[in-house]
Write a structure and sequence with these properties.
Structural class: mainly alpha
Number of domains: 2
Radius of gyration: 20 Å
CATH topology of the largest domain: Phenylalanyl-tRNA Synthetase, Chain B, domain 1
Strand order of the largest sheet: 1-2
CATH architecture of the largest domain: 2-Layer Sandwich
CATH class of the largest domain: Alpha Beta
Number of helices: 5
Oligomer: single chain
Number of strands: 2
Distance between the termini: 15 Å
Largest sheet: 2 strands, antiparallel
């Protein structure tokens, strides 16, 4: 289940807005009802429960992609190692760096 803040960010993006911590406050009273919007000061209507729920699938995909991005970052290696591959490719006429990046992407596909 996607986090409330993820679904709200998607709602904002769909309405040409960006997340701003000073314009929305989320709260969870630990009463079993979960998080909710406690304050909203955007110049668009606060999303209804139904509107937020409509972003569940997109929110799940966005959160999965964040995890995939983190995995990819570690597998791409350090910038020093990447630069060394690029240098060697230019020197030797090889495609080691491109092949490496293609493998990282194919091993960790996004939704």
């Amino acid at each position: 289940m996607a986090q409330l803040n993820t679904k709200i960010k998607l709602y904002l993006e769909a309405n040409s807005k960006t997340w701003n911590d000073t314009k929305v406050t989320l709260q969870d009273n630990s009463d079993g009802n979960g998080a909710f919007i406690s304050s909203w000061s955007y110049d668009i209507a606060q999303p209804t429960t139904e509107q937020i729920a409509s972003y569940e699938t997109a929110g799940n995909a966005a959160e999965a992609n964040v995890a995939i991005d983190l995995t990819r970052r570690t597998q791409y290696l350090s910038w020093e190692q990447q630069m060394e591959m690029i240098y060697k490719d230019q020197k030797n006429g090889t495609t080691t760096f491109k092949d490496h990046c293609d493998k990282v992407r194919s091993d960790n596909p996004k939704s």
